[in-house]
Structure prediction request, 240 residues.
Amino acid sequence: MKVIIAENYDEMSKKAAEVIKDVVKNDENAVLGLATGTTPIGLYKELISACAKKEISFKNVKTVNLDEYVGLPKTHVQSYDYFMKDNLFNHIDIDIANTNLPCGDVKDLDAECARYTALLGKMQQSVQLLGLGSNGHIAFNEPGTAFDSTTHIVNLTENTIKDNSRLFDDISEVPTKAITMGIKNIMNAKKILVIASGKNKAQAVYNMIKGPVVESCPASVLQNHKDVVVVVDKDAASML
Ligand code: F6R
Prediction:
């Protein structure tokens, strides 16, 4: 793993954006694996600005997102579909038809999991961006998830529901289930870029990089991938 320690959140966002920009510059047909959450917002701002300056174009880029809540329609402000449009897709020159998220608002969730896994089979991520849960989760693969998992439905842990409740009016509104890429789908990416910021991520960052490779810390599996770049700020790196 290549570990880059940035001074603060803004520098983390800039350095991580450079990794994505390089991938897009080298391959205009790149497949970007994208994440939601608070951490990537600054990175997405950097990509928007690079696109506005015509430094990069997303015209032929395709995207696959990690996950989505179950039960929220795409139009819900807390859905990940909405988040991606609001924080990135609506502000760059991407063809929205080239963007993909798993859908959590369907009757047959098993069929949706199979559809998304099949799609990922046809679209290997040139780079997969990951945020990191404070309990070491990647996407919504919570501690204990099998390393050979593909797209599946998860019951979110209390810890994750609590972490995510800051974005909702009330904790009771946070969905309790999500549909997520599995760990095997993530590990299939050619390159993986992990970003983390803040002291509350320090233990997870430590476990991901220096801990044993165990299913109780899903991010530790990344030690088995041959091309991982970790960009963290000083606070998130404070236990390394
Ligand atoms: C988001 C995702 C999650 C987040 C993680 C960190 O698509 O899959 O694993 O990356 O929960 O979230 P933030 O960035 O909000 O701390």
The longest helix spans residues 9-26.
